[in-house]
Design a protein that fits this description.
- This protein is globular.
- The chain is built from three helices and 22 strands.
- It has an 18-stranded antiparallel beta barrel.
- By secondary structure, the chain is mainly β.
C-alpha cells in the first residue's frame, strides 16, 4: 500500500507543472480545502471550460446536463522535524491522498464521496490516530433540497461529513495533521439572502489505522448544535456569527475532575475588514457538568490588524491577537472552570501545536508580507501565561493533560517565535516552510516534560486538482 501511494504521488506531482501551467481566470471559484463547498455548475456552458482539469470537473450524465459528476483530489507531503528539551531530533514524512466525486442528480439531490489515505514514514514513535489511516471515507453523505428557490433554500444532509464554522476556533476540519476530523449524523442547512444557518446532530468519527476499518456511529462523543452566519453587514459594516453547541464525552479527563462531560457552549463572533483595518472578536461561555462538578467556563478570541498601503504590490499587515481561556480555580469547590475548545485547530501556537485553548492567555503580535499573492512571509511572536495556578496546561480539547498543577504558583509558560514562508506556484500547487522555537519559562521551565517541544521544522508540498 505504501509503495503504491508513493508511485501515484510521484506520477501526479511530476505532471503537475504541465497540467497546471494556467492560472485561474478572474472571477472563477477557487479550489478550497473543504472540497464539498466547490460548485462547478457554471461549466454547463462549455465556453467556460478553459483550464486543463475542466473536463473532469463537469461530466454530463444526461442530455440536458442536469445530472453530472465532478471529480477532484489532493496530494500532500509534509516533512516534520521536532527537537525537544533533551535535543533529541526526529525527522519524519507524512503523506496524504484524497479523491472525491460530487454527483448531482437534478437540482435537488446530491451524493458526495471522498475516500482518504494517510501514511507516516521514518517516524520512530508509534503512529498516532492523526498520522495514519491507510484508507477510510472522510465524507459520504447525501443532500436533498427540501426548499430550492432563488431567495432561499433548505437542505437536509445525512451521512459522514466534515464540519467547519467561523475561524475554526471550536469546530474545524483539522487541516494540519494527516487525518482530518469527521462526524456522522444529520445536518439541516438553511440559506437566504441575509443568513446561512446549520442545525446538526452527530457522533464524532473514530479513526483506526487499517483499510476501511473505522466504525460507524460508535464513539464516546456526541456533538450537536446550530451555527448562524450573516451574509451581509449587520452592525455597521460588520458581520455577525452566533451559535449554540452541545457536547457529550462519556469519558472525559481534566486535572481536577473527570467523568462524563456534558457541555453547552453559547457564543458570538463579530468581524469586519476595511481598506486598512480589520478585526475579528469571538466570545464563548460554557455550562454543564463533568462527573459531579458543575461547568462554568469562558473563552475569548481577539484579533486586530492594520494593512499598510493595501494597493501596493507587496501588502504588509501588522497584527495583534489576545486570547483568554479559563482554567479551574479551586479543585475543592466542585466546579469545573477549564474551557474546552472541543474540536479546534491542531494548536493555538503555530507549528509545534502543544497548547490548546484551556487555562492560558496569550498576547500575539505578528507581521505578514504578501507579494503578488504568490509569496507570503509571516513572522509572529507569542507570550503565554496560565490563567489559574490551580490548573495545569493541556495538549488536547477534552482535557488531555500535559503538565499537572504543582506547588509552583508561577503562571508564565514561555514564548514562541515563528517564521512561515508560503509559495503558491499556481492555482494547484503550493509549498510552505515553517520554523518555530519555544522558549520555556516560569511554570514550564520548573516542570520539564519530554512532550515539550522547543524547535519545530515543517516543510510541505500541496497539490489540489
Amino acid at each position: 500500500m505504501q509503495k503504491t501511494f508513493i508511485i501515484i504521488f510521484i506520477a501526479i506531482i511530476g505532471g503537475a507543472p504541465y497540467a497546471n501551467g494556467q492560472n485561474r481566470p478572474s472571477g472563477r471559484p477557487p479550489i478550497v480545502p473543504i472540497r464539498q463547498l466547490e460548485n462547478y455548475e457554471f461549466l454547463k456552458d462549455s465556453s467556460n471550460a478553459d483550464l486543463n482539469f475542466d473536463p473532469i470537473k463537469f461530466i454530463p450524465l444526461s442530455d440536458d446536463k442536469s445530472n453530472y459528476v465532478s471529480i477532484g483530489g489532493e496530494l500532500r507531503t509534509l516533512y516534520e522535524s521536532i527537537i525537544n528539551r533533551q535535543d533529541e531530533g526526529e525527522g519524519y514524512l507524512l503523506a496524504r491522498f484524497m479523491v472525491h466525486a460530487d454527483l448531482h442528480l437534478g437540482p435537488r439531490f446530491r451524493i458526495f464521496i471522498q475516500p482518504a489515505s494517510g501514511f507516516e514514514f521514518f517516524k520512530e514513535a508509534p503512529a498516532s490516530v492523526v498520522d495514519r489511516d491507510e484508507l477510510f471515507l472522510l465524507n459520504l453523505f447525501a443532500d436533498y433540497k427540501i426548499l430550492n428557490t432563488s431567495e432561499k433554500s433548505l437542505t437536509v444532509r445525512l451521512g459522514r461529513q466534515e464540519l467547519n464554522y467561523g475561524r475554526g476556533r471550536l469546530i474545524t476540519i483539522r487541516e494540519g495533521p494527516n487525518i482530518r476530523h469527521y462526524w456522522e449524523g444529520i445536518n439541516l442547512l438553511f440559506e437566504n439572502t441575509n443568513w446561512k444557518a446549520d442545525a446538526f446532530f452527530t457522533k464524532y468519527g473514530t479513526n483506526r489505522p487499517g483499510v476501511l476499518d473505522n466504525p460507524i456511529w460508535d464513539t464516546e462523543e456526541t456533538f450537536w448544535g446550530s451555527y448562524w452566519q450573516s451574509k451581509k453587514s449587520v452592525l455597521g459594516n460588520a458581520k455577525l456569527d452566533f451559535y449554540y453547541l452541545g457536547f457529550i464525552d462519556e469519558v472525559s479527563q481534566f486535572f481536577n475532575v473527570d467523568g462524563k462531560e456534558t457541555r453547552h457552549s453559547f457564543g458570538g463572533r463579530i468581524y469586519e475588514k476595511q481598506k486598512h483595518w480589520d478585526y475579528d472578536v469571538e466570545a464563548t461561555g460554557q455550562l454543564g457538568s463533568v462527573g459531579s462538578a458543575t461547568i462554568l467556563a469562558f473563552g475569548f478570541f481577539g484579533e486586530i490588524g492594520y494593512t499598510l498601503n493595501p494597493n501596493a504590490p507587496a501588502k504588509k499587515r501588522l497584527g495583534l491577537k489576545l486570547d483568554y481561556f479559563t482554567g479551574d480555580r479551586d479543585n475543592n469547590d466542585n466546579r469545573a472552570n477549564t474551557f474546552n475548545p472541543m474540536y479546534p485547530r491542531q494548536g493555538y501556537y503555530r507549528g509545534a501545536g502543544a497548547l490548546y485553548a484551556a487555562n492560558y492567555w496569550d498576547i500575539h503580535p505578528s507581521f505578514n508580507v504578501e507579494v503578488a499573492k504568490d509569496i507570503s512571509l509571516l513572522v509572529d511572536w507569542t507570550w503565554y501565561w496560565r490563567v489559574s495556578a490551580d490548573d495545569g496546561i493541556y495538549i488536547g480539547g477534552s482535557g488531555i493533560p500535559l503538565l499537572a498543577p504543582t506547588e509552583s504558583r508561577k503562571k508564565y509558560l514561555g514564548n514562541q517565535l515563528d517564521f512561515e514562508i508560503q509559495y503558491r506556484l499556481n492555482d494547484h500547487l503550493t509549498s510552505s516552510i515553517n520554523y518555530a522555537h519555544f522558549y520555556s519559562g516560569g511554570f514550564v521551565e520548573d516542570n520539564p516534560t519530554p512532550a515539550e517541544i522547543s524547535d519545530f521544522l515543517n516543510l510541505s508540498l500541496l497539490f489540489r486538482f
